Amino acid sequence: MKDDLDLASDPRWRRLWDRPWSCVSCGEAHQGLFDLAFGKPEQWPGAEDKAPNSALDLDLSGNFLSEDFCVLEGQHFFVRAVLELPIRGSGGQQFGFGVWATLSRKNFERYIAEFDSGEQDELGPWFGWFCNRLKGYPDTLNLKCQVHPVSGRQRPRVLLEPTDHPLAIEQQSGITFDRLLELYAIYGHDMRMSLCD
Ligand SMILES: [Zn+2]
């Protein structure tokens, strides 16, 4: 990807990393990039009361939700993953949405079997359906994607099928810093004034 802009010369970008600022929307202190995460797949009907990962019943029956796994009615299987959007002009920085994707039962079982090994990059990529509705886009539920397990106890990466959906285009082409600030604002972290202090 050719970058026609360099964020190093943008004072707001430097301010983002320089020192914490207090977020006028949520009241927390932020510094640098942070992920925007969903605690459950869209299809999960209940609250986000999470069991430990280790409490997953290996016969995969019933309903289950933890930080990384979800089973619905013993028939639908979901994993917590990260969808990354490259930030244009940032020298390779990525912004992440913490999201959920389906796996087939077979691939879900393989993922669980290797989960504690920390060595998962030989697995996959696997087909999945994207399972969250992201604000700021046309409906993103059930977009086709590939789930790429990665080693080192990191969450799998989600790569959307390369279609003309705006989210897929942003994943391929990257987003500008202004778009990133817009996304943060949509999700309740409007930092556009704070970065000018
Ligand atoms: Zn905030």
Chart the SSEs and their pairings:
Layout: H1 11-18, E1 21-22, E2 29-30, E3 36-37, E4 64-65, E5 69-72, E6 76-86, E7 94-103, H2 105-114, E8 126-129, E9 144-148, E10 157-160, H3 166-173, H4 177-186
Parallel strand pairs: 3-7
Antiparallel strand pairs: 1-2, 4-5, 5-6, 6-7, 8-9, 9-10
What are the defining features of this structure?
about 200 residues; alpha+beta; three-stranded antiparallel beta sheet; globular; binds zinc ion
Short structural description:
The protein has about 200 residues and is of the alpha+beta class. It has four helices and ten strands. The two termini are about 30 Å apart.
Judged by helices, strands and strand pairing, the structural class is: alpha+beta
The set of bound ligands, ions and cofactors reads:
zinc ion
Number of strands: 10
Q: What is the approximate shape?
A: globular
Whole-angstrom Rg: 18 Å
Summed over residues and divided by their number, the pLDDT gives a mean of: 93
What's the helical proportion of residues? Answer: 10-25%
Strand order of the largest sheet: 3-7-6-5-4
Number of helices: 4
Would you identify the regions where 5 or more consecutive residues have pLDDT less than 50? none
Distance between termini? 32 Å
Number of domains: 1
Succession of helices and strands: HEEEEEEEHEEEHH
